[in-house]
């Protein structure tokens, strides 16, 4: 279906603009309440959004490059654990995919994998993850296990010029591999539940993964039975060559940050080259472009709000920013769809205001314009993206395939 795209949203605190919490429609006292997140995710689901990502980090300052990120008082600080939050949201939703963010450097891969499998069971096949490579100095201090690591981008701005960053992406690749292997460690028919014989489990269908890598090793099987999707959807955000290569090798879906439709074409070409070099997964990499949006009834009103936000705290981002009306956002969706992306992830500048505008105005107009892919009623997030349910690699080996 050419030039038609999926739509996703990225949820983070009071919104993607650091001053959004001060807006009249914000709910700064509710940011860590279950009801706040339930209402956000239901708004997105009601709009027919394919999935929502949930941001996370392992320090107060998050992934900010601001030198005073840990100590400044004019930013939202405090958040809920994204995987646990997604598992809470699973039973209060029925359709939308749930994709929490996980930093790969510190959590144990086994715990990450079992948490994601649990999310997939709780959501009946709507779970995924956005993997973030590396860690900040403060995140390392919070865990106290590593004395060295990436210190931000090197002066060149290129990941490949920093050995610590390269190591972080190799480690993230191992985490992605372990998530998939542990998901495969149970075959679909491993649980027998034979009341007559008292045989609950066919132990021959539960396999030790016996993984040994550069950064860790795991010998056993998952504690969670195989989940509805087989494997959770693995996603990553990529801005340049090394992350593009990481996504091409390990992810099902990648988020990119083109400045416009023309730059999206160049990024797509680079991703195709990377996939040709390293991709071993059966399906092509799905590509979603990120667009940060602030939506009002008129361009003048949107500009006034944006100026007020920027006066209070300057937002710096490499993502495309659209400040205007719903029609302006739809025009951007149309241009990126024509460039060949599979989907677009909208980052609402303000929550809930811009999410509500996406649901009430952007989605209906985009659907009327024929930009959005229709819902095919598939049961799982993978299926809705056109991705097959992977068979257990260990079952395939058993039959000699």
From TrEMBL:
Keyword Oxidoreductase in annotation: yes
Pfam families reported in the protein's UniProt record: Bac_luciferase
SUPFAM superfamilies: Bacterial luciferase-like
Keyword Phosphoprotein annotated: no
Keyword vocabulary terms for this entry: Flavoprotein, FMN, Monooxygenase, Oxidoreductase
Domain Luciferase-like as annotated: residue spans: 25-305
Membership in a protein family: Belongs to the NtaA/SnaA/DszA monooxygenase family.
Name the UniProt record assigns to this protein: LLM class flavin-dependent oxidoreductase
